[in-house]
Every structure is written in structure tokens, then in C-alpha cells.
Write a structure and sequence with these properties.
heterodimer; A: 117 residues; mainly beta; four-stranded antiparallel beta sheet; 53% strand; globular; B: 113 residues; five-stranded antiparallel beta sheet; 54% strand
């Protein structure tokens, strides 16, 4: 398996522009998570989906952020408009159904490094 | 308020010696604990976990100890190897697998050859 795939790996944009980050979870995983990592706040959960349905989006910082999961193999995280303080590494992760995970936790993608100028 | 704390931002250990990484938590509802390892420019990878019904879990060179009364867990790596140099995140979640996983800020481990 290719693991969790994220694109792009790096994104540099200007303040005010729309940014779309993409994620393909591991096939068979029914939970998908979006995280943001910054020096100040560490690794924080933004939103997670179970069976394509958003379960908890309380970590989404504000209305400029939105996430969708139109099907089991694809999710997007959109920032519109982007601001310099959104600069961070954004990780997508997926996991097996609870009874099948055998305590293995989540599988993370390589991340997207976003820089907003 | 940080629910999962890793008070040592960094740790240096000689190759072959034991590495001990510590983690404290504040939420008594946490029921399951995980350790992740992260190399630069990569996503975190799962390392080892422990349920609150246990006080120890071992996997090869890695052992996690849990002290529920102290709300403290630790990860022991014996013997430490240079390839273990990475950032280690402690994480915790509630009773159900649908509960959010809360990550600590991480400890950067350097194993010196």
C-alpha cells in the first residue's frame, strides 16, 4: 500500500489566496483526520471524519477553514482567504475501524508545508 | 490548557544507553495512550500504545510504562540507536475509539554515536 498520500507537498501562496490541500487515505480506512503542526501549538487536530461524515470540527480555527470528504478515498482542506498565520505543516491521517485497528493508531501522510506570504 | 504535557523539549543520550521520555496528562478520562515517532519532513508514525488497564507494554526495544495514579507515562528505549533520533509525541484519547486523540508537544531525542 502506498500509505496516506497528500498533495501538494509544499505550497507557497500570497495572503488572500485560496489554498486547497488534498488527501487520499489508505484503502479500507474509514476514519480520516486533518492536523496542523506549528512551533507554538504543536500538533493540533482540526477535524476528523468517520465514514465520510464530519464527526468533530471543533478544532477548525475559523470560518476561513473548511474540509470535505466526498468519498472514502479523497478529502480536501480549504483555506479561503489564506493569511500568514496559517503557515504550518498540515497532516492528513487515516485509521482502521476501531475493532480492527489492534491499537495501531493512525497512519499519517508526509504533510503539506504551507507558507502564506 | 495543555492536556498532554512533555516537559522536556529535547534529550541527548549515548548510543547503547537507555532513553527515557516522559509524558504527563491532566484528563482523568483518558483511557488509551500512544507514542508516535517523527523524522524531519515525514509524518508521525505509530510506535507503541498502552491501554489504561495495563501498566506496561513492551515491543522489542520499546517499553511504555503507565502510572495512572500519577497521570504519568514514560517510553523507554533500550538500547538506544542513532536511528532512534527523532521527535517523539505522546498522545492520549478517551474511552472510545471515536474520541479525539490529543497530542503532546513532542520531545526531540538525539542518540549520539
Amino acid at each position: 500500500d502506498a500509505g496516506v498520500i497528500q498533495s501538494p507537498r509544499h505550497e507557497v501562496t500570497e495572503m488572500g489566496q485560496e489554498v486547497t490541500l488534498r488527501c487520499k487515505p489508505i484503502s479500507g480506512h474509514n476514519s480520516l483526520f486533518w492536523y496542523r503542526q506549528t512551533m507554538m501549538r504543536g500538533l493540533e487536530l482540526l477535524i476528523y471524519f468517520n465514514n465520510n461524515v464530519p464527526i468533530d470540527d471543533s478544532g477548525m480555527p475559523e470560518d476561513r477553514f473548511s474540509a470535505k470528504m466526498p468519498n472514502a478515498s479523497f478529502s480536501t482542506l480549504k483555506i479561503q482567504p489564506s493569511e500568514p498565520r496559517d503557515s504550518a505543516v498540515y497532516f492528513c491521517a487515516s485509521s482502521l475501524p476501531p475493532g480492527a485497528s489492534h491499537g495501531k493508531g493512525q497512519y499519517f501522510g508526509p504533510g503539506t508545508r504551507l507558507t502564506v506570504l | 490548557d495543555q492536556q498532554v504535557k512533555q516537559n522536556s523539549p529535547s534529550l541527548s543520550v549515548q548510543e547503547g544507553r537507555i532513553s527515557i521520555l516522559n509524558c504527563d496528562y491532566t484528563n482523568s478520562m483518558f483511557d488509551y495512550f500512544l507514542w508516535y515517532k517523527k523524522y524531519p519532513a515525514e509524518g508521525p508514525t505509530f510506535l507503541i500504545s498502552i491501554s489504561s488497564i495495563k501498566d506496561k507494554n513492551e515491543d522489542g526495544r520499546f517499553t511504555v510504562f503507565l502510572n495512572k495514579s500519577a497521570k504519568h507515562l514514560s517510553l523507554h528505549i533500550v538500547p538506544s540507536q542513532p536511528g532512534d533520533s527523532a521527535v517523539y509525541f505522546c498522545a492520549a484519547r478517551g474511552r472510545t475509539s471515536y474520541d479525539k486523540v490529543i497530542f503532546g508537544p513532542g520531545t526531540s531525542l538525539s542518540v549520539i554515536p
